[in-house]
Design goal:
Blueprint lengths: L10 E2 L9 H7 L9 H18 L5 E4 L3 H12 L5 E6 L2 H12 L3 E6 L8 H10 L5 E5 L1 E2 L4 E2 L2 H8 L6 E5 L18 E5 L11 E5 L1 H9 L9 H9 L9 H17 L1 H21 L13 E5 L6 H12 L1 E2 L1 E2 L8 E5 L6 H18 L8 H13 L6
Parallel strand pairs: 1-12, 3-4, 3-5, 5-8, 8-9
Antiparallel strand pairs: 2-10, 6-7, 9-10, 11-14, 13-14
Bound molecules: pyridoxal-5'-phosphate (PLP).
């Protein structure tokens, strides 16, 4: 039987998509309702309001029925115009994606290449902006999921805020809702989140919000757009509706998850995710492995594979033998790292199972690569998993 078959023993511990909360699975299976009904209007209105608490913004938040990349594209097409000079921080796969997008839409794109595994240096950003005062936007991932690096978003926002015509556009897809990323306090002008990452939902929704500074550019943006035209959506939202059809099951699940998280509080939610990251780092470092990122995010952890083994095989055997999906590395990191997600519905028991299973696979691929007995591993895995906070 395939591991992908619905199976209570299966753990999806990727940095998105993630394990669903059992309640979300129930909601997704409910009968369909129409999206032009009073019932749906309530769900929609409440979600737009609650999303503001997650974004920590006073501005409106908009929902696109798209994957996260659609939300990235929305920030670009709504705020920028062809010919605009932009700076894209490229520190991994998702930075590359944004640079490709701005190029496709005709923006004069500068790439600031950061070595993989490292974070942006503020001094480098300051120098660039001094030398390129016409820069219309700086685009950056909060967490670059391909390397598990967290960039200094708060400090970047302070620097960019000194430039009245430069926007700060942030891909928060593996940060927003997983760790503190208050949009207004961090002076972010355009922020995007995605449903299948920190929002614990299936793939298919992206969330965007724009500052007042960004709205000035939205008014004059010349980039052609239709589906992602935020002015069209804004007009509909003001009437309590979405412009396009609502993806009803996803929206019902979103409505539930927002109320659920806000009921125990965003701070507690971040603490739970942080406890998973801390336990993961402690376990793997205690067995002699090292972390890949120099500035690790709390939403996922990248572990370096021992040089003697192929990280892709490590990943594959975890899935085939133990029913656990984590991610390997992409491009230059292929076979070199394992990426473990900390977002979604994860129990401490599942984390312990992952810890034990990953050592089991390593011992199979390269006997002796972990200098600890089975009993020692078990004790360590138990101790680390015990520090993980349960989802309320
Ligand atoms: C997952 C992810 C995306 C976009 O993903 P989609 O596959 O389009 O949903 C974008 N940026 C980051 C940082 C991500 O982790």
């Amino acid at each position: 039987m395939s591991v992908y078959t619905s199976n209570s023993d299966y753990s999806l511990l990727a940095p998105g998509p993630v394990n669903l909360h059992p309640r979300i699975r129930e909601i997704m299976a409910e009968p369909m309702i129409h999206h032009r009904t009073p019932e749906y209007d309530q769900i929609f209105k409440r979600s737009l309001e609650n999303l503001k608490s997650i974004f920590q913004t006073k501005n409106a938040v908009y929902i696109h029925p798209s994957t996260g990349s659609g939300g990235m594209e929305s920030l670009v097409v709504n705020t920028l115009s062809p010919g605009d000079e932009v700076l894209v921080i490229v520190s991994g796969k998702f930075g590359e994606r944004w640079a490709e997008m701005t190029e496709v839409y005709g923006m004069k794109t500068h790439r600031m290449n950061i070595p993989w595994g490292e974070a942006l240096s503020i001094a480098q950003l300051e120098t660039f902006l001094q030398q390129h005062p016409k820069t219309q936007a700086v685009l950056c991932q909060a967490c670059e999921t391909s390397t598990a690096v967290l960039h200094p978003i708060e400090a970047m926002g302070q620097v960019i805020a000194n430039y009245p015509s430069t926007l700060f556009l942030v891909d928060g897809i593996t940060a927003l809702g997983a760790l503190p990323l208050p949009m207004d306090a961090f002076r972010i002008d355009g922020l995007v989140g995605g449903s299948q990452k920190a929002f614990m939902l299936p793939t298919g929704l992206s969330f965007v919000s724009f500052s007042e500074k960004a709205w000035k550019k939205i008014e004059t943006s010349k980039t052609p757009k239709y589906y992602f035209d935020i002015k069209r959506e804004q007009k509909a939202n003001k009437k309590g509706e979405s412009f396009f059809s609502g993806p009803v099951p996803l929206m019902k699940a979103l409505d539930w998850v927002l109320q659920y998280v806000l009921s125990y509080g965003l701070r507690k939610h971040f603490e739970i995710i942080r406890s998973r990251a801390a336990a993961t780092r402690e376990f793997y470092q205690s067995v002699g492995l090292s972390l890949y990122s120099k500035f690790p995010s709390e939403s996922l952890t990248a572990i370096c594979a021992p040089t003697a083994i192929d990280g892709q095989k490590w990943r594959l055997l975890l899935e085939q033998k133990h029913n656990i999906t984590v991610m390997g590395g992409q491009d230059q990191l292929k076979g070199k790292i394992l990426r473990i997600g900390h977002m979604g519905y994860i129990t401490p028991k599942e984390m312990k199972r992952l810890f034990m299973a990953s050592v089991d696979v390593l011992n199979e691929l390269a006997p002796g690569s972990i200098a600890k007995t089975q009993a020692e591993i078990e004790t360590l895995a138990t101790r680390c998993a015990e520090k993980i906070l349960e989802v309320p």
